[in-house]
Design brief:
The protein has one domain (6-213). The chain contains eight helices and two strands, in the order ββαααααααα. It has helices spanning 10-33, 42-51, 55-74, 85-102, 112-133, 142-154, 158-181, 189-213, and strands spanning 2-3, 6-7. The chain has a two-stranded antiparallel sheet. A hairpin with a 2-residue loop joins strand 1 and strand 2 (6-7). Helix 2 (42-51) crosses helix 3 (55-74) and helix 3 (55-74) runs parallel beside helix 6 (142-154). The chain starts with a strand and ends in a 9-residue tail after the last helix.
Length: 222
């Protein structure tokens, strides 16, 4: 059986699911740190605070927006499978709840060094998750799908675009929160750390993997 022109192997499916799980585990550690939400969750959370709508609804709206952004950018290269990103969002939500329950035994960060350590763990887990699931070329999360689309159109490295995309999302969240709430909402130092370092960490993991295995993983597959 093939999917996206490649054999649908157990390894592809495992890497995809495991990657998504690692990302949600990173999100859980970010929340646990108390230093702000992850970059990609900052806009949905800001909309949640502004509109008083359920976070699941605002997250869904944000992801639908990103799917349409992909459609506009890729045009004829936009594949029908990318509409499955809506379904993947539901799976991502289940994994997020499960990950938060997994880290429930971890005490809330009581001081800045511990909080920063949790943020670093969060960045590493999210970057590792991206490294695992993106090359499987199955169905990207709309956030990564949009990042991939921008990387393809601009012909720039995925990790570089990832940094720019996350920083743009965080800045947009800051503006929304400040204009409508008079504060910075869910954005904190942990959010900034994630926006700046997740892309760099993906790049570092890619380099380490290449040195160890000689495999040049394609992070622009769609």
């Amino acid at each position: 059986m093939e999917f996206s022109g490649e054999e649908l192997t157990f390894k592809r499916i495992f890497n995809y699911i495991f990657g998504l799980f690692l990302i949600t585990l990173g999100v859980a550690f970010s929340i646990k740190s108390g230093l702000g939400s992850t970059p990609v969750a900052s806009i949905p959370y800001a909309l949640n605070l502004i509109l008083k709508w359920d976070l699941g609804i605002t997250t869904f709206i944000f992801q639908i927006f990103l799917v349409f952004l992909e459609l506009i950018l890729l045009r004829n290269n936009f594949k029908r499978k990318h509409f499955l990103q809506v379904f993947v969002s539901l799976i991502f939500g289940v994994f997020t709840s499960f990950s938060i329950s997994l880290v429930s035994f971890v005490p809330q960060a009581s001081n800045m060094p511990v909080a920063l350590l949790m943020s670093v763990v969060s960045v590493f887990l999210i970057a590792l998750g991206i490294f695992f699931y993106v090359p499987t070329n199955l169905v990207p999360i709309s956030v990564e799908g949009a990042t991939q689309a921008i990387a393809i159109v601009t012909k720039r490295p995925f990790p570089q675009i990832k940094i720019c995309f996350d920083v743009t999302v965080v800045i947009s969240s800051l503006i929304l929160s400040y204009v409508f709430l008079g504060n910075f909402g869910s954005v904190g130092i942990g959010t900034i750390i994630g926006a700046v370092f997740i892309g760099y960490t993906v790049k570092l993991i890619h380099k380490i993997n290449y040195k160890l295995t000689g495999e040049d993983v394609d992070l622009k597959k769609m």
